[in-house]
Structures are given as structure tokens and as C-alpha cells.
Design a protein that fits this description.
4 helices
Amino acid sequence: MSGEGSIIRDYQGRFLAAFSQNVGLGTNNSAELRALIAGIRICREKGWTNILVESDSALLVKWVSRNHCKPWYLWDFWEELQSLTDGMQIRIHYQYREANAISNILLMYLESFVTQLTNNLLTGRQA
């Protein structure tokens, strides 16, 4: 099971938005790319076009920096990202996992909730 999540802040570090969601089965690279797409989609909807992305995925940072995603099974997501970022200024930097503590907490909470809900459904208990 894979999850994605992100925190969106303004240039002064103030909280603007957050999300996390279960994306089902997939690779970690798929989850990272899908999280970036979801975050960029929120920014586009809000009219935020000058974006600095901080990611703990060195591979994702490499793909975006070089504007090239190698794995063929991610090309549909890559094309979606390219379409979403048209007309936006996107910069991306690598950030150690420890600096992503809030995003990781959101994902752990989501995983815990999904596990509890699944167990309740399997045992017939009310949530």
C-alpha cells in the first residue's frame, strides 16, 4: 500500500494547505510523483504559480531537475505533471527525510486510519 502527502507553505513558512491520501498499490516512486502532482494541482487551483518544492526523494528531484522521467510505467503521471506545470515556475530541492516530519506524520495517521477501518469492516465492528 502506498500513500502520498504534502504540506504547502508560503514563502515565510506559514501553513497554507495539507493533504494525505492512500493511493493503493504502487511503488515509492509512483507515490512520490503522484504526491507532487497532487500538490501542484492544489497550487494551480489556488493560483500559486511560483513554486519551490522540497522533496525527500532524490530520484524525484533528479527527474524534475532534468525534465526526464525514465520508468515507462510512470510516463502517464509524468505527462500529467508536465501539463499541470505549464506556465508555472517550479524549482525543486532535495530535503532530508527528517525535515519532512509533518508530512510523514500525516501519512502515518492515514495508514493507521485505513488499517483500523479495514479491520472494522472485516470484523463487522462499527467505526
